[in-house]
Design brief:
six-stranded mixed sheet, disordered N terminus, two-stranded antiparallel ribbon, 183 residues
């Protein structure tokens, strides 16, 4: 019975930890040369971050880790879709994103970020967690202007509503509309 309770309480925690462990690469055991890793990113990834503007997305991340004797080069290739809110009609739409990033990992006394592309890991370190890097790259790939690629896919009724609302918002007769939930 105790065993059962133990499993019941621990399983969700364990699975969450394992999901995050998936992004930890034990590089010490890798041979000199190129190694390929593949990550399928979905909702559990986004939910594991306290703040992200979208909880839905599906991305593939291909990582080539090239290990040299004194440093490592990591090449990330990201591609997929993220659900974002359209600036025009406020509805969610699928934003395609794709990009490549490089990270040079050097070794030294303590962890430091020399630049966006160069980090230093303590020589005693044997693993690297790429989760945070992937998250930052996704953020860098998000466009500043977000909208349905095809304007005809926008919710036309909502656009009309928003248009009328902004036109009338200084008219006191429309004050009641200010509390309307547009979602
Ligand atoms: Zn739209």
């Amino acid at each position: 019975m105790n065993q059962k309770n133990y499993l019941y309480f621990c399983r969700p925690i364990l699975s969450r930890v394992n999901k995050q462990m998936d992004y930890i690469i034990p590089f010490k055991g890798l041979s000199i040369g190129s190694h390929l890793f593949n990550f399928e990113i979905g909702e559990t990834f986004f939910e594991s971050f306290d703040y992200f503007e979208s909880e839905r997305g599906k991305l593939t991340v291909n990582l080539e880790l090239v290990k040299e004797s004194a440093l490592m080069n990591l090449f990330f290739k990201l591609e997929g879709n993220i659900s974002l809110k359209c600036d025009r009609c406020l509805m969610m739409y699928n934003q395609h994103i794709a990009g490549e990033f490089m990270l040079i990992v050097k070794f030294g006394d303590a962890f430091t970020e020399e630049s966006d592309e160069v980090i230093v890991l303590p020589v005693t370190e044997s693993t690297i967690d790429v989760r945070q890097f992937i998250f930052e790259y996704i953020n860098l790939l998000l466009p500043i202007k977000r909208s349905h690629p095809d304007e005809t896919d926008c919710d036309q009724k909502m656009i009309e509503k928003l248009h009328n609302f902004s036109k009338q918002e200084t008219d006191p007769r429309w004050d009641g509309l200010k509390n309307i939930q547009l979602d």
